[in-house]
Amino acid sequence: MLKLELRPEASELWRYGSPLLALLITVALGIGLFVLLGKDPVRGLQMFFWEPLKSAYALGELMVKATPLLVIALGLAVCFRSNVWNIGAEGQFVIGAVAAGGVALLADKETGRWIVVAVVLAGVAGGMFWAAITAWLKDKFHANEILVSLMLVYVADMVLGYLVYGPWKDPAGYNFPQTKSFEAVTQIPRLMSGSRVSVGLILALLGVAAVWVFLFRTRSGFAQQVGGLAPSAARYAGFSSRKALWLALLTSGGAAGLAGALEVAGPIGQLTPYIPSGYGFAAIIVAYVGRLHPVGIVFSAVLMSMFYIGGELAQSRMGLPKSITGVFQGLLLFSLLACDTLVAYRLRWQSGRA
Amino acid sequence: MESYALLIAATLNAGTVLAIAALGLLINEKVGVVNLGAEGMMLCAAIAGFAAVVHTGSDMVGFLAGMGAGALLGAIFGVMVIYLGTNQYATGLALSLFGVGFSAFVGISYVQEKLPPRTQFEIPFLADIPLVGAAFFKQHPLVYGVIAFVLALIWFLYKTRTGLVLRSVGESPESAHALGYSVRRIRFLAVMVGGALCGLSGAYISVVYTPLWVEGMVAGKGWIALALTTFATWRPARILLGAYLFGGVTMLQFHLQGLGVQVPSQFLSALPYLATIVVLALISRNPAWIRVNMPASLGKPFHPSS
After folding, report:
1. CA atoms within 13 A on the CB side of A332
2. Domain boundary assignment for chain B
3. Cβ contact, residue pair A151, B285, below 8 Å
4. What is the pTM of this model?
5. CATH hierarchy code of domain B2-293
6. What's the pLDDT band for A7 if we cut at 50, 70, 90?
7. Which of A151, A229, A342 is best to mutate for the B interface (most B CBs within 10 A)?
């Protein structure tokens, strides 16, 4: 029978090979799913892996969707490396969007371009605040951060709902639950005309560099990760676990809030009940598939963005439900976790009984 | 007064949903496995159960389909965390994310479907007692079933040899292994049972509790059930009480709205989630107390080194 044998050392090859193998498995399962549904699998794969790449405009759209995923996942990488399980990035994203939207609503015809900076900072602060609730409850009361951060996602949705159905509803909006469209002056500047790619992408790439430097070139980044890998060693070295907790949650919350601001003052342009898009959850998968490494996350964010665009195309052109994206995302994470077994173990064929 | 009787009835009903799932998760956690995939398993079971009732017309088949779906997903989770040694948190999370997507994907063609007319259950004679009858004796059989199940589970866990073995696997897998018990097989079975119960709860939601299918209709009840196991410090009877408490909070929002209390509806809808957070914080305040009650190997993988 097949047996797992512990490797003397973790396999470097499989550390990088495993996400690729996981992608292959997901594609194979996807082909199976298309065949099962009586759809042409080649056309199905085209929607996901060719259509999003085939023109400059398509590539731009790919980046538009990859940007929030990249930003959120970068924050989560810092968080997960510290062994802090913030799975409520979706809620922090929503509150970031709400805070950014609140500032954007203050703008009028005379407001200067500086308002964009205020909008973005408000988003970051909103996300940080929402994550700080989780940090505070964990720090003071030892409340499990997984459950608290997740519950706060539902609460964040209610906050957004209250505002857009209530005080912030556009009085001239035919009673639709949405705010008025933000003034053009609050719009995150675009990089070029003819594409929706914004300065957000530049910020995201700067974030990649910043997270890389923090994790691998600074003492506090090192302390952060030691706390995650070996809490007792961290304690011995005098690294504060409380500081690590707060830093992890504030970083990931701030990043998610930033993504919320970039979305709401970017492609969306107003607050609606449809702000919660699942990016906060998808970013968890992005972070893992990217090996919690800032550069890896760039690739996985683009991949996940392809899943989103492919899902939308599969809906409009092949009549498949858009939720196929969620199925593939889930399958990818499952396959990755299973393939990661190969990092620590090797498969051995063993005949008869051991 | 009539409205209070109905509030109690609704509370028991909502509590049953949470209790069934939380008892399943309790069985998981007693052997040392945390399954964060509860929400995903419940969603998949909800659509499986709903679809089964649409096609067969039988609630019983619906419940069985839900349990089957839950057990199957539990088994996948079990193979990964127990035999492949994957991280329990990450794998459970993957299961939840997958379940949300998969149930929405499969369920799209059932969104407009309706179930055959629902039967109104009542216990003869007792149901005719004024107020008390409406509050306690017009419930779905599973509402009473879950109480019987809790009693049976207490007996099983604390009075039988098998229950002792189960608990020892969670408290000290090394010792259980040394005594010759197959830790991994016992864990795997417990995870499947836990999945089946989460599945039953999910099917109860879509077949009885709110008999329809809507994307994401479990609405965090899987996560609340997970919080309940901590809240109950891993004791079956306390899980039942906690479930009724949370069921009551869920129902209170409708009751308050009915009374015309001037609070934004979103605030009332957020109550169950806020209550979960507050209760978690209060119960976790004393880490030593949690540590005494928590199965000692919770969340830790076990590799038999034979």
Report:
1. 26
2. 2-293
3. no
4. 0.93
5. 1.10.3470
6. confident
7. A151
